[in-house]
């Protein structure tokens, strides 16, 4: 199977192989897909818990479901997020220059 990836990802894969983290592009893609499936299965399991309310109960509000999902993210991952992520979201999502900070 041939898989087309953008030049950005091609360079990333080559750099990871050069650093010795992976022996080949195939090994790296296998690991990426394993992690994606593991994450997807985990989220699907969390969501499934909320699909079937027990008899006589009401479904959880969306903000409670979101809170439950947030607890599944380790603290060290939350610590990696930028503190100005909301204010500078265009910078982090699209790579635009950061805007001057507002007071």
Number of domain modules:
1
How many beta-strand segments? 0
**What class, by secondary structure content?**
mainly alpha
Q: What proportion strand?
A: under 5%
Mean pLDDT: 86
Helix percent reads 55-70%
C-alpha end-to-end distance: 53 Å
Shape: flat
Total helices: the number is 5
H/E topology pattern: HHHHH
User: Which stretches are poorly predicted, pLDDT < 50 over at least 5 residues?
Assistant: none
Sheet with the most strands, sense and barrel status? none
Describe the structure.
It is a single chain. The protein is mainly α. It has one domain. The chain contains five helices and no strands. The protein has helices at about 5-20, 25-50, 60-70, 75-80, 90-95.
Helix/strand layout:
Layout: H1 7-18, H2 25-51, H3 62-70, H4 75-79, H5 89-94
What would the keywords be for this entry?
57% helix, mainly alpha
Outline of this structure?
With 103 residues, this protein is mainly α. The chain has helices at 7-18, 25-51, 62-70, 75-79, 89-94. It is built from five helices and no strands.
């Amino acid at each position: 199977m041939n898989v087309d990836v953008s030049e950005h990802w091609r360079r990333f894969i080559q750099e990871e192989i050069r650093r010795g983290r992976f022996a080949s592009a195939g090994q790296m893609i296998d690991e990426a897909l394993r992690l994606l499936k593991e994450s997807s299965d985990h989220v699907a399991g969390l969501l499934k818990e909320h699909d079937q309310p027990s008899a006589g109960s009401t479904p959880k509000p969306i903000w409670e479901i979101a809170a439950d999902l947030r607890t599944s993210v380790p603290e060290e991952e939350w610590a990696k997020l930028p503190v100005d992520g909301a204010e500078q979201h265009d910078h982090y999502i699209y790579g635009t220059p950061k805007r001057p900070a507002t007071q």
